[in-house]
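REVIEWER CHECKLIST
Item 1: Sequence provided? yes
Item 2: Single chain? yes
Item 3: Sequence as submitted:
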Amino acid sequence: MRFSLIAAGITALAASGPVYADDAVQRDASIVVVGERGALQKTPGSAATIEADDLLRARVLTVNEALRQVSGVYPRDEEGLGLRPNIGVRGLSPTRSTKVLLLEDGVPLTYAPYGDNATYSHPPVRRFSRIEVLKGSGQIRFGPNTVGGVVNYITPRAPEEFGGRLTATGGDKGYAEIDGEIGGQAFGARMLLHGNYTQFDGVRDNHGLEIQDLYFKAERDLGADHSVTLRLGVAGEDSQVSYSGRTLAEYRADPFGNPFKNDNFKTERYTGSLTDQWRLSDALTLTTTAYSLYFNRDWWRQSSNSRQRPSDSSDPLCGGMANVNTTCGTEGRLREYHHYGVESRLGWDGAVAGIATNAEFGVRWHTERQNRLQINADTPTGRTPGTSVNGGVTERNRRYADALSAWATGAFTFGALTLSPGVRVESVEYERVNALTGARGKSDLTEIITGLGLTYALNDGLTIFGGVHRGFAPPRVEDVVTNAGGAVDLDAEESLNWEIGLRGSPRPGLNFDIAAFLMDFENQIVSSSVAGGAGATLTSAGETQHTGIEASVHGSLRDMGVMEDNDVFFRSALTWVGDADYEGTRFSNISGFTNVSVSGNRLPYSPEWIASAAIGYAIGNSFDAQVEVQHTDEQFTDDLNSVSPSADGQRGLIDAATVVNVATNFRPGDGKLTFFATVKNVFDEGYIVDRSRGILPGAPRLWQAGISVAF
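Item 4: Structure as written out by the authors:
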């Protein structure tokens, strides 16, 4: 079934008639969120782009490192390669990126955006040519998550002529990467094939990572105003990824230690999409996308600071951590996700009563299902159900989410003023089946999301922007339907988001923006367990409020005309979240403290200050070097705002950290050959990135060097 869309797409390309080489629309039929950096001046809301030059100059190692270039965004590291990114926006929890909508070329990237919007795997950042981030009212063009922001990864265009690139990189801690792409005209279409293989010993002991990623794109023009794009992807991971972080004693003894050498994290991922873009007239453009995804994840793991094995007291063969690698049992959290969808967007560009108007009308059908199995084995290397007291199959669930969405957005221009209203309707049906007991339950919700954005052009290079929209994020299947089939009174996450800002390009080569924001939650959803991670039961935190300011600047003295051949380039991103607090009557969720008021306390994992800045120097086009500084302020990790660390490592203040990175690129001769080198965390800053499942350390000093050949 998961290959049906792939087969249909290949058939459509093969049978799609002649290509009109002279007058064809030479473009990729993709859905963009923002567009090129120059389009930001007309964007009604806070938005940013990370262009190819930004990625290459920094030689970013992970998508987390790339997203730190954007103000308002807090990406938290985990295993060292950004394979499970934790992206927070404007003070929202970053855990598993559940508060943002991740897209690739406008198509959902996560496995269950309605039923379980958690990111357990992610393509390598090398697959993308640029990244778009949108945080304003324009989010309602997309869904279902419109609370924090939209991150859209853009893949490269398939080339007109034959060519490609091969990059080989090596580094310490066993880092090795081969990345390449090749493309050109074939079978009447423009094609691109991208492949990546990466291995890394990881930040912690016994944490070896290995991924393979293969991506194919084909673009065919069916006429001067009609094009179709097929995208196929297959990826896999086979890593030693542990669930458990360090206890306080373990961290003090060895910050990068990890006793669970038998843990294993294995995935398979297949994706396919077919996009048809047809310019029906000078005013109308119809874009229709069919997409599918299959994701399989087997995670066999132990833990020293949760109720999972071997620390579960009911594991009779274990007896404690001394036997973790001999007689202690293990848990298999086995997950399988499927989703399919079709969406259609009709764009109209014209006038209403003499007012210049741009509008989009859209509708989408989306369905997803999860097959979830938990197996408890009797030994650390066991991969079948055990027979001990705590062994066997302890969960066998099927979870479903079916969603219908419709939206209408517009932009009405009155001279220098453009008003951009919009409305989106989301209707979701949930179902959960407990195959162990036969229990079955259903639930549903329908939400109307509205928004209004504006821009006012003070002059050609200075624009005021602002907006207000209602944020919406659906609950997971497991949060609204219990394992016994009962319904849970957990409303969708809703907020009223305001922002106002100033964006400008006072001269070519210099861009800046500054925005103030207010996110007023009627019902923010948080984990009911401090150590829950993304898998914990969620609960309503009630009213919360986020206020702050974000600002960024991006410039090049060469592009500004100050320098001719050489260049000084720079960028910075600053975020201040002054308030991210519990409002109203609110008590702690922590066991033993449920009668303690936390009203007015700061939300966990919401640092007040986040900053990123880089400056570099280029000698013509043959050499460039840059220094980058990334700073994250201190942050609380529980609703009590505990400062002292707990023995299990899951509570306590995370101190501020400042990391310095350097990168150099050298392109001799015609520039087709590039030598590069980077050092991450130059001063070997020791810091903590997370406590939700125990203490996770930040990456130590790492170096990479490589060579890239274009042909």
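Item 5: Key structural point noted by reviewer: The helical segments are 4-14, 52-58, 63-67, 248-253, 477-480.
Item 6: Recommendation: ____
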